[in-house]
What does this fold into?
Amino acid sequence: MAAVLQVRDLRKSFGGIGAVNGVSFAVHEGEILGLIGPNGSGKSTLFNCILGQLAPSSGEVRIDGRPITGTRPCDLNRLGIGRTFQLLQVFPQLSVRENLVLAGQEHEGGMWSRLFGPRDAGLGAAANRMIEFFRLTALADERAGALSYGQQKLLDVAMAFMSGPRLVLLDEPAGGVNPTMLGGLRERLKAINQTARATFVVIEHNMEFVMSLCTRILVLAEGRIIAQGSPEEIRNDRAVIEAYLGN
Amino acid sequence: MLLAGLATGGIYSLVAIGFVLLWQTSQTINFAQGEFVMLPAFFVLAAMKFGGLSFAAAMGVGLAVSLLVLGLLFKRLVVDPVIRHGVLPLVISTIALAILMKEGVKEFYAADAQPFPAAWATTNLQVGGAVVSVQNLVIIAVAVLAVVALQYFLGATRTGRRMQATAQNPLLARVLGIPVGRMVLYTFLINAGLVALASFLVSPIYLAKFTNGETLGLVAFVAAIVGGFNQVRGAIAGGLLLGVADNFVAAYLSAQYRAAIPLLLLIAVILWRPQGLLGRAEERSV
Amino acid sequence: MKKALALAVLALVVAAPFGLKPYGIYLLSLWAVMTIAAIGLNLTLGYAGQISLAQASFVGIGAYTAALLTTQGWPLGAAFALAALLCFVIGWLLGYPALRVAHHYLAFVTLAFATLVYLILRNEEWLTRGVYGISGIPRPTLLGWSTKAPLDFYFFCLGVLVLASAAAWWLLRSPWGRAFTALRENPIRASSLGIDTRRYTLMAFAIGSALGGIAGVLYAPLVQFIEPTAFTLGLSFNLLLMVIVGGAGRFAGPFLGAAVSVLLPEWLRFSEGLYLMIYAVFVIVLLAFCPSGLLGLAERLRDSWPRFFKSAT
It folds into this structure.
């Protein structure tokens, strides 16, 4: 069975400086893969290469066996791939519900059907379900810009899931979130992972969050994978400890 | 005739270089660049008419005023306040500024074309078997000199290298202790100098008129794009190409559609070589 | 509150022409025509974030289409259809290669296109009669109602404006409108959500250009004599300023901006040639302090009103 996501020997350099130096890994359905590593290890660059924001210097990316290297971000959405952003990217002038409807509208159908077809097409109901799932019901009609940081992060994650993606790449979802809300976020992510069989790849710096959420972890340093395994194994891996603490 | 093309091209290059420099260092797309070239000539004329100065003195005054108004004041009064809100409002502001300058000259000086004295003899020489105008030679010489001086300044002097660093990565430059604000100001001053020079070169030929800015502005943008937006060398190449093409078309093909050359070249470049002739293909940015 | 305001404005524009001299009615009609073009440009600039310097050229294309057709006896309706289609297609053809390259290239392409159109209008005398222009453009008759008189033609313009506004409103309320907002607010996020930013930008530009063409079709019978110098970069700048001053990306922006632009030369008549300069300075100052235009300024004042009262007590 083909892996949901397969990365083969991916490389990306910026004018002679190699940010990603030959990374290969596979993610299977239902896994929550954590991607950790010290600053500058190439995690974000790797993400951006997978997600079509950057064109890799070499190597390939496959989804369900199909090559998608360098596909445009908007086309990736249709292939069932979603992402969240490290720096918040909600639409602050729109309400929470409008944000979610917007997040779901481009997934199916063509441009013209969107203009002349039925206005709602079930999006309103889907948005409401998402609002309830992420416990944002009280804030549904508030302008997204007025929410607290943690709440906006939840919205950010919710938006990525509106189109029902198979694979979601989360870029530092715990960053800046109040510790009291972290537990809720982790629990919601696990719930989606179970019910929708969605696969995640998560970049994170918050070790505790990663260890408690992910089923498998990859450690990146200087653009290369230096370790992979279960949270327990990684916690005790010497190479990982060295990479983080320096020598 | 090739010489005439190169001369025109030289002038275009100067204007295009300034335009590209502004874009590189401060994300300023100066839609008033054409009017910037139109104005210095009028500073000189005004100095002579109202100040009674000699031509040479007036040129000096004109240059100084250009540096002040088109360099310092432009940056402090227009660019700095507006760019806080983004590139789009700045572009609109420069459009408004262009209107302001054009109307200003029309109202406060004259609406009809004014003769502008040349700093050289308007005679022709016999070189080999061909007739060559001194004017074109002088223009080419001055333009080349200016470009060489500029390249030397940017590449070999400390300030110049700091300016290049600022253009490539302002954040890093700041971290390295380079006074970014001042470097950007220098770029504006250099642009002011370049357009003033272009103005003094072009006005004797085409006369000084408030509408001069329109064609020159378009040429500057297209030259910059055709050459490759992110390169000064590209601006030079683009300018020369446009100058030669312009003269060629006017002489051999339709004179009426002379002004369509920039558009056609632009379309051609966009379709077949979007990064410009000398530019590097830009990364699809995050 | 907004609905009441809209109705009040509607009542105002319907009642306004009565009691005005023919020149005043002409100004009102001009305002209506310019608003249509500005609504189109607002789509391009305010929603899709692209600068188009060719909107006047599209108005010109519309005007010449109308002039050529109606002076040959064709109905104005045919001109509307043809001009809209033509401008839409041209907009698409211009935008497609330009946007494929980079976001800011469309501005330059429209600049060059504007120059080209002017040249064609001026030089191709066999078609456009060049600098001599086309005169005697008739005003249409709708089901027996002749719009020849200034007052009648004004209501015709108003009718077209209402239709155009309604269409724009419907478009902006649709999923496309949501996509336009998304791509203006946050193109990176929009694209990761599947919104094809390039295509939507192109659509906005093409539709905006088509609206310019429609405005042009209305312009021709309004002035009844057209020639190339009416459709130069000057008008394009003017339209841009209308959108900005009114408030880019706001639905009511074009209405306000067009009003300012049409009325300003009248108010500043005492300053003669200076009015353009004053206008330009005003725009620069406005952009430095409140880039969201007069409507944005009004919003800010409204929001800070309660504070004003609080501190006063």
